[in-house]
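Practice problem: predict the structure.
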Amino acid sequence: MAYNLDELKTRMQKSITSLRDELAGLRTGRASASLLEPVTVEAYGSRMPLNQVATVTVPEARMLSVQVWDRSMANAVEKAIRDSGLGLNPMGEGQIIRVPLPELNEERRRELTKVAHNYAEAARVAVRHIRRDGMDALKKAEKDGDLGQDEARAQSDLVQKATDAAVAEIDQVVSAKEAEIMQV
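Answer:
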C-alpha cells in the first residue's frame, strides 16, 4: 500500500459518515424519517426496503407519516413496522399510515446513549486502524528509501493530526446525539 494522506483522510471521513448513519437510526424523542430505514417489507414476493414501497415524512415532532404508493401494500407495511423491533405501533388510515413515537423513559434514554457511545468507539477504532495503515506505509517508504527520515517524521505528524481531527469530530457528533437523546 502506497502512502497517500488525502486517501487516509477520505477513509477517516467515511468512518465518520458511517457513524452518522448509525446514529440517525437511533430513536430519540424526535421523529426522523431515517428511523424507518432498517424496515423491510414483504412486497411482490420479495423483501424490499420500506423506502421502495412508500414515502416517509415527518408531519409533527412525535409522528411519522408513511404514504404507501400501492394501496394493497398498506397492511404489509403496517405489519413490517410493527414487527421491526423499534417499539412502534402504526395506525393505518387507507394509504397513509401514521406512526406515533412514544415518550422515552429515563432508563431507555441511558441505554440509547450507551449504544451511541459503542458506535462512536467503533468509529474511533476504525480511524485508528486507518492511522496505523498510514504509519505502516510511511515506515515502509522510509525503509525502501523513497522517503527521508525527516520527511517521514513530518508526514507521520500530518497523519496524527488528521487522526486527532477525525476523533475530535467523532466525539463532537456523539455528544450532540447524546444531548438529543437526553432532551426531554
